[in-house]
Design goal:
The complex is a heterodimer of chains A (about 110) and B (about 270).
Chain A (H helix, E strand, L loop, with lengths): L1 H10 L4 H9 L6 E7 L5 E6 L7 H12 L3 E6 L3 E7 L3 H10 L8 E3 L3
Parallel strand pairs in A: 1-5
Antiparallel strand pairs in A: 1-2, 2-4, 3-4
Chain B lengths: L1 H58 L1 H17 L5 H14 L20 H15 L17 E4 L3 E4 L2 H8 L3 H12 L3 E3 L5 E4 L4 H16 L9 E6 L2 E6 L5 E4 L18
Antiparallel strand pairs in B: 1-2, 2-4, 3-4, 5-6, 6-7
Helix pairs in contact in B: 2-3, 6-7
Classes of the chains: A alpha+beta (about 110), B alpha+beta (about 270).
């Protein structure tokens, strides 16, 4: 009996769910898609928070090809790598990321107006 | 000759000119008379109709009294959202109780059928509305005035009624400002008259969308949807507590995220 009593708490891992979700899709980690105004009516779209396993350069290449715009991968000291695209591509990027299966729709946050 | 011709022509014109209107006038008169006749006829018909309808009403005097009450209840019921069923109920009732007492408050009175859920629900809501209307669920929607936005120069935008909106939301202007600036991805500050000056060109619609998101995330209580909440900071974490229902939740801190460097770069440094 005493063995069982000890074993039950150890068998249950309260963080199992959280860990599983984290490895699955990044439960709390949102992908932020932002827009930034430049001079005139130009703007810039930034995609932040993609998972590190992905090859940013390959994603960027496809994004550029899809939306016919230029872009770069910027290395930020705090936030890691961030994709920058020219123009307001927020809608395009979110649909692309969802369709390619890179991120789930619930984990995308579109900022800006 | 030429003069005479001209005169003739003028005469003709003069003759022609008054000639036409008279014709038209005559026609008009005729038409007017016609319409008058018609209207008289119609009036006669109407009076006939009226008399007929009066006769009908007199025959169904008992029914009329009853009809009034169900209409009342249906008006009160409109939030429950099944007007069609109500109508059906009333029709059935009319068929059933022609010679019965006109004191019908509820559709089930005068018959010994079971109460239906919708009817009982309507009754509960009616009673609730009579006694204490603030609990009945038709809550007063808080109206926020649309943001007033001016352009300062070409590159700055002034949000005029920023303070008013902060007050209506019961939020610290600092908090709202950080959220707005983070979402817009620009910089800005409060000026002397407590207006928000934001760098960049923005339309009022943009501000409205962001404020809407702010209200959803930092003002509205998820439990009861009331905007009557208090945002408090407890050791670095923001908590939202509802004044209406007492529920609380934590809200995410505002993070500006990545802001790309825009504009001219200093070549030297």
């Amino acid at each position: 009996m005493s063995d069982l009593d000890i074993q039950i708490p150890t068998a249950f891992d309260p963080f199992a769910d959280a860990k599983a979700e984290d490895s699955g899709a990044g439960s709390k980690e949102y992908v932020h898609i932002r827009i930034q105004q430049r001079n005139g009516r130009k703007s810039l779209t930034t995609v932040q928070g993609l998972k590190k396993e992905f090859s940013y350069n390959k994603i960027l290449k496809d994004l550029k090809k899809e939306f016919c715009c230029n872009g770069t991968v910027v290395q930020d000291p705090e936030l890691g790598q961030v994709i920058q695209l020219q123009g307001d591509q927020r809608k395009n990027v979110s649909t692309f990321l969802v369709q390619a299966g890179i991120v789930k729709k619930e984990h995308i946050k579109i900022h800006g107006f | 000759m030429a003069d005479e011709n001209q005169l003739d022509a003028k005469d003709e014109v003069a003759e022609l000119a008054p000639f036409d209107p008279t014709k038209k006038k005559k026609k008009k008169k005729v038409t007017i008379q016609d319409t008058e006749d018609d209207s008289v006829d119609k009036l006669a018909e109407k009076t006939e109709n009226l008399s007929v309808s009066e006769g009908l009403e007199s025959t169904f005097a008992g029914l009329k009294k009853k009809k009034k009450k169900p209409v009342e209840t249906s008006i009160l019921n409109e939030d429950t959202g099944d007007a069609g069923e109500d109508l059906d109920d009333h029709a059935g009732e009319d068929d059933k109780g022609d010679g019965l007492v006109p004191e019908h408050r509820y559709p089930w009175e005068g018959s010994d059928r079971d109460y239906e859920y919708e009817e009982l629900l309507g009754r509960v809501f009616n009673i609730l509305r009579e006694n204490n209307p603030e609990l009945a669920g038709d809550r007063r929607r808080t109206v926020m005035r649309p943001p007033q936005v001016l352009r300062e120069g070409t590159k700055k935008t002034v949000f005029v009624n920023f303070m008013d909106l902060c007050k209506t939301m019961h939020r610290q202007p600092d908090h709202v400002m950080t959220f707005l600036l983070a979402e817009l991805g620009t910089s800005g500050s409060l000026d002397g008259q407590q207006r928000l000056v934001v760098k960049g060109r923005f339309a009022p619609k943009n501000f409205e969308g962001i404020l809407r998101r702010y209200v959803n995330e930092y003002v509205i209580c998820l439990g009861c949807k009331s905007p009557d909440t208090i945002l408090s900071k407890e050791n670095r974490l923001f908590f939202l507590r509802c004044e209406k229902c007492g529920s609380g939740r934590s809200v995410a801190p505002i993070k500006a995220g990545f802001v790309a460097r825009v504009g001219r770069r200093n070549a030297g440094t």
